[in-house]
Amino acid sequence: MKHIYVSLCLLMLTACAKTPDWDYDKSANFSNVKSFAWLPNASLTKDTTHYQISPLMEQRVQKAVNATLTTQGLQQVAIEQADVLINYHASVDSKIEIDTFTTGYNARWDNWGFGIQNQTHTQNYEVGTLVIDVIDRGTNQLIWRGAKEGRLKKNQTPEQRTLAIEKTVATILANFPPK
After folding, report:
1. Residue 113: is its pLDDT beyond 80?
2. Residues 113, 114, 118, CA angle at the centre, nearest 5°?
3. What's the average model confidence in pLDDT over 139-165?
4. pLDDT (tens digit, 9 = 90+) per residue, 26-81?
């Protein structure tokens, strides 16, 4: 019985893992995609004032996207020669985690009562979402989108932030081009 309980708990935890979300145009011909360029007005910091989405973070994301797409066989070229254009954006949302657990049981025989003591803890945290768009340069239409969200960590070193971005971007682009 104990093993079944542990197995169910592990199954529930893995089901809650943050996985990337992909969507793409099924009519697009991804076999012709050999080169990419950045959309001229691509900006991660546009329309946000959150301190973790900064020009430094923008540089990290661009480097990670360039490295990942190059590793996948695409070549970065001038915008006029690119098959697809890359755009991206990010957002940060505040969330609240509420945990309630039982701290004790009471039984009183003189007053004929039974009680349960519960304790509730709340914690505010931030969730960041990174979205990467791939646009067909010929038609100027979105043909692929990937996104991933995750809990933001504070007080990270620049190296830790770079590693986190590289992993996130690689995870998002793992399904590009779709197979």
Report:
1. no
2. 140
3. 90
4. 999 999 899 999 998 877 666 666 666 678 888 999 999 999 999 999 999 999 99
Whether omega for the bond prior to residue 55 falls within 30 degrees of 0, making it cis, is no
pLDDT band at 111 (very low <50, low <70, confident <90, very high): low
In sequence order, what DSSP letters do the residues of the chain get, joined into one string?
A: -HHHHHHHHHHHHHHTS---EEEE-TTS-GGG--EEEE-TT--SSTT---TTSSHHHHHHHHHHHHHHHHHTT-EE--GGG-SEEEEEEEEEEEEEEEEEEEEEEEEETTTTEEEEEEEEEEEEEEEEEEEEEEEETTTTEEEEEEEEEEE--SS--HHHHHHHHHHHHHHHGGGSS--
What totals of helices (H) and strands (E) does the chain contain, helices first? 3, 6
